[in-house]
Amino acid sequence: MVDSNVHNVRNICILAHVDHGKTTLADHLIAGTGGGLLHPKMAGKLRFMDFLDEEQRRAITMKSSSIALKFRDCSINLIDSPGHMDFCSEVSTAARLSDGALVLVDAVEGVHIQTHAVLRQAWIEKLTPCLVLNKLDRLISELELTPMEAYTRLLRIVHEVNGIMSGYKSEKYLSDVDSMLASQSGEVGDENLEFVEDDEEDTFQPQKGNVAFVCALDGWGFTINEFSEFYASKFGASSSALRKALWGPRYFDPKSKMIVGKKGIEGLSKARPMFVQFVLEPLWQVYQSAMKPDGGKGLLDKVIKSFNLNVPQRELQNKDPKLVLQSVMSRWLPLSDSVMSMVVRCMPDPMAAQSFRISRLLPKRLLQDEVDSVVVEEAELVRKSVELCDSTPEAPCVAFVSKMFAVPTKLLPRRGPNGESLENYVDEDGSGDSDECFLAFARIFSGVLCSGQKVFVLSALYDPLKGDSVQKHVQEAELQSLYLMMGQGLVPVTSVNAGNVVAIRGLGQHILKSATLSSTRNCWPFASMAFQVAPTLRVAIEPSDPADIGALMKGLRLLNRADPFVGVTVSSRGEHVLAAAGEVHLERCIKDLKERFAKVNIEVSPPLVSYRESIEGDASNPVDNLRTLTSSSDYFEKLTPNGRCVVRVQVTKLPAAVTKVLDESTETLADIIGGKHGQTKVDLPLAQGTGVLLDENPIEAFKKRLMDALEIDISMLSENDKDRAEKYRIKWQKLLKRFWAFGPGQVGPNILFTPDPKIEIDDSSFLIVGSPQVSERLGLLDGCSEDHPPASTSSEIISEELRLEAETLQNSIVSGFQLATSAGPLCDEPMWGLGFVVEAHISPSTEQPDDPESKHQNLEQHGIFPGQVMATVKDACRAVVLQNKPRIVEAMYFCELNTRTEHLGRMYGVLNKRRARVLKEEMQEGSPLFTVQAYVPVSESFGFADDLRRETSGGASALLVLSHWEALPEDPFFVPKTEEEIEEFGDGSSVLHNTARKLIDSVRRRKGLPVEEKVVQHANKQRTRARKV
């Protein structure tokens, strides 16, 4: 099954929204081209690729799995992927190893939120997509649409999907042009324009053959090509001309026997597009005649004779008309032949695909001058081999492992490729006591991979130019066995050529999640995979029996390696925290821990919800938010314990767009601030909004996003008051040159500004002005350093010792800011979207010891001064937040719900109980389904799906995707003061805590912080003796 001819190989994955028919389609492809692995009658019922018990029980796919198929002369590696948002990481692993993608869309439900996500994933990984419109039978039998109505629906879906892809293309086109205009020459020449991908035509065009219309459940499907070839032989016309005419506004004139446009049908009364007349109407007639109660099967017999179909008589005599129809249709328009023909015709082979995808897989590096030329030449040779998909034995061997997956040891093959006996019961570490064996899910991009071969395992942080300093990021491993994946089955092979997908045994102790395999050390690692969401659902776990803690820790290590998206950490309180993408993902992880990896009983805590802390800000008036930084009275002042330093802190609310940019750019900022941007490489940043790769410097990309975010507020202000907008612009131009630090963790969404250099200094004090080091690294100083006067006083002579002490205290101020932003005053949660200005005034010590002994004692006494400054800055930052109307910020899910009209009321009842905010409600045209979009707080989402199913009797489904952070408008310390408030809420003693205060108290209670609450609610006198009646 391993094809040595690269041109005959296709690597494809199936991507779609949940329940749109991916696994059913895979079943029919396996039944048609799997060499007898699956009987056609079981296709769609067995769900061959869902071989886990949990997948069969829930009827959803939970992992990506591969199978090797044979169609004509081509070897096709098919990867089935999940559609549930909780398992979107598996979509990323499948897309990285594929060259093309079959994107399924339900013809009834249309484009959904996960359809957008998988199209973006295919675009990021530079896959060649083909569109498959599934469930056409529901348009006939369930919705009872006419052929013309069905055509309108199909046309709208194709236009909508093309619109999504066009958005990605336009973003890429504009960013390419912008980067060229920003070049040194400032002009775009013809030689540069040829590298810009223009958005001149739609991605999916049925007349080109990359759109299939199928019914996966009944096993039939077609593309325009099948009908164009049939009618070409019937009418004696050109097949290519008919192919272009069978989609779009093309009509057949029966009088002139010509194909005409809209203008040519003005005199015709019942003109229909050719797709309706020659494709859909025959299908509708076959379905309607077969499903008639009187059993009229004359048209079915006509179809059987016309196309010379071989349908067994016993199937035609079946009393169930649905089975009879399925037998005829699956032989007239076999699904596997149509889809596989489209795959071979429209999707590239590995050689063509890798030359197109090389910029994504191995982006070019910007190198310094002082580098080892030998290493660079060999690395470029490896990159060229990957680009050409060189499958010769002399080529360097390069492979990428997208994930590790666990297989029970008893399921490994007992015989090798030559019939020799294999010893499978020895674990990689030699212990032999593990029931699970870890295999690497990999694809060979260059060379030939052989069992027993020694390769280098490169992590994503490996840099071949750094030599011995990155030894921890490279390991040498020996490959024990190679397997061809056949769903759950494994077929051992001795060697695999470039362009094929394979499972590798022997890397369990060397790879945690993903890695690059290379036969040489001088190879750049592949670019990291892009994941659509982050694991946000966290729970604390512990064994029911404390003696099982060792087994639990071992099980967590195995789970962390087996699941590409799970997160395992230890909290500051010593708890083992498990992070998952959602409830379904978490339930599967807990089940795997209990039954496969740890095999002990586990206690699971309630979900640990993350919050953020901020202050109240007026989004409609951003100018007023900045006034707090320029006001001389709105600050908090605190003195260090030794009395030598006075700390004044001011705080402001950052614009929401700026906060979002800082939060989404944490990885880019870590590289820039950490100094990686000036070293050996520049990775291509990922635009979070669209997932489009930007071929420009990360610093320039971040600056552009930051300026665009500020322009949002400026443009809003300029609509009402241009003078205020200009003042706002000038203020931010000054603030951009005063970035001292980001926090928490040096890359968070909070900013520490340096003090205003024009501030008045007291005669006896000394101001620590800091340095705008972040602005300097981001290139915001415009090539000239800001004129910060050295810390000065009005006195002419400044003690050199005091000046040096002020310079050493700069790190203490930054550290105090980092501590404050990592744990806010409300419930020790990180701060969100705040800007701080810290003015630290130090004064000389009042003691002037004369003898050396007393001087030494004085230094020891004040040696803790930097720590005092750090603690004072931290306390002052927390206190200034408390005095500026603090607010709690919570994460929000974007929720998309689908339900019928009769369940709308109960569905809204469930949403109201969970503080949801409904955004949009619309009815899907031509169907009884309603689509409702809403925002649901993450803290209210646990058990949401079960509650929704229970209340609507299973009539409503929901999909949750992490959307954004949103501040609760409620004041957690609200106390009625005015007469109206007292009349509405009562006096202070009887006011119940609002939602914000309840959330804060719940977090403080979980963290062991003090909570203001009544310990005894209803006191009764204690009865110490029995009551005598």
Automatic annotation (TrEMBL):
GO MF terms, alphabetically ordered: GTP binding; GTPase activity; ribosome binding
GO cellular component entries: cytosol; ribonucleoprotein complex
Key word Hydrolase present: yes
SUPFAM superfamilies in alphabetical order: EF-G C-terminal domain-like, P-loop containing nucleoside triphosphate hydrolases, Ribosomal protein S5 domain 2-like, Translation proteins
Entries under InterPro entries matching the protein: EFG_II, EFG_III/V, EFG_V-like, EFL1, P-loop_NTPase, Ribosomal_Su5_D2-typ_SF, Ribsml_uS5_D2-typ_fold_subgr, T_Tr_GTP-bd_dom
Keywords assigned: GTP-binding, Hydrolase, Nucleotide-binding, Ribosome biogenesis
Taxonomic superkingdom: Eukaryota
A Pfam cross-reference name: EFL1
GO BP, one annotated term: cytosolic ribosome assembly
Keyword Nucleotide-binding carried by entry: yes
Protein name (Swiss-Prot/TrEMBL): Elongation factor-like 1
Organism: Linum trigynum
